[in-house]
Amino acid sequence: MLPPLLIESLQGIKGFDKTAFEAVHQSALQLTSIRINPAKKVERATDNPVPWCNGGYYLSERPSFTLDPLFHAGGYYVQEASSMFLWEVLKQTIGQNTSGLKVLDLCAAPGGKSTLLASYFTNGLVVSNEVIKARASILVENITKWGSDNVVVTNNDPSHFSVLTNFFDVIVIDAPCSGSGLFRKDKDAIGEWSENNVKLCSQRQERIVVDILPCLKQGGTLIYSTCSYSKQEDEEVLDKIKESNYLESVALNIPDNWGIITTQSDKTASYGYRFYPYLTKGEGFFIAAFTKTDGGLDGYYQEQKLVAVSKSEAATMQSFIPLADTYTLFKQGDAIKTISTDWFSALQLLAKQLYIKKAGIELGTIKGKDVIPHHELAMSHLPLNGFNTLELEEQKALQYLRRQDIFEESNLGWNLVKHCGLPLGWAKVLPNRMNNYYPQAWRILKD
After folding, report:
1. How big is the chain by its Cα radius of gyration, in Å?
2. For residue range 357-387, what is the model confidence (pLDDT) as tens digits?
3. Backbone CA torsion sign across 89, 90, 94, 95
4. What burial class does residue 328 get, using C-beta atoms within 10 Å of its C-beta: 0-12 exposed, 13-18 middle, 19+ buried?
5. Residue 208 lies in a domain
6. SS3 at position 206
7. Which pairing describes strands 151-154 and 356-359: parallel, antiparallel, or unpaired?
8. Which of 145, 174, 54, 73 is CA-nearest to residue 423?
9. Domain range for residue 438?
10. Cβ count near 315 (within 10 Å)
């Protein structure tokens, strides 16, 4: 049963229909949607696109994603359709010229919006942050599978970014919330909802925005979203954003047939966009965009000099995986990593101020004259055509993903294991066996 106090609090909000709201939550209908990775070009039998997101599709039924090797290959991301509306917001606020832009996804786990940002800002830098350590590890896994080399994953509180004044061109805050927009999908969330939790979430959302806004450049774009229906977490937070900072609300052009409700906050008339599951093909969602009109003073940045690779290490790695001169190699411990040279100085600044979980692509480690490739390299969009490949049919691919012993005739040495042409990871073929190098922590446990 839906919380009566929630129903009462939503009365009078534009677009709210009590009968329709209750009916859709009593319905057994469940929507499933995915977003295709444009760099990996998975072909799926679907002709039902999500109208507001390139590569977004509704599925007619929910398959077992755990048992689909293409899911583990990063060929697509399972994302709620309403959340994909971020793509349309970016189209209308940023446009198509993303070259040189720095983007922060502040509350990023598990990675849906960060993978979308990585695909949208192909010529930009995406900093994907998660404050909770365990969730940050899930974020690293999903970013790794997506394969983009323009993403840095950090594990920090929003206040830790304060020194990076005027650093980011775009900041996305998908704020922690009371979760009422997910009641249809997650029945357990209903029992956790309370008026007090809504109030606490609203206060936390305001603190997060205040902490991070100095990092946004003049002329930069702030995007705020929740999966809550409550005005306290939505329009009232927009009023706080608008009242206390140099920000202008951005109105979007929304086609009527999308069913998205345009709303304005009571005090400052700031625009927000609310998704009701009885009007749109998606779950409950709220999003708004602002432009910063005054940037204030720049911060003082110090770079952390990341460890450079030696000439011999660079030569060894280049012989293993030839990289264009647009990439810079650096070390973290014994691991050799790479990132676009365009973003290396930005990475040095970030490394001085923040705890970095992942940066660019980890290529591998050097043992003597040999290179032990890392899983990130297999998942990446870097040129991998020089490696031997081992194409596996579905059941063998699932065995590999369970980290079970398999043996297939192939060239000796390192092989890139693939399914339907997409890399799954590494295997080393020896004369009488094959060593499975799929990450132990990511192996499939489901039969």
Report:
1. 23
2. 999 999 999 998 899 999 999 999 999 999 9
3. negative
4. buried
5. yes
6. helix
7. antiparallel
8. 73
9. 389-447
10. 11
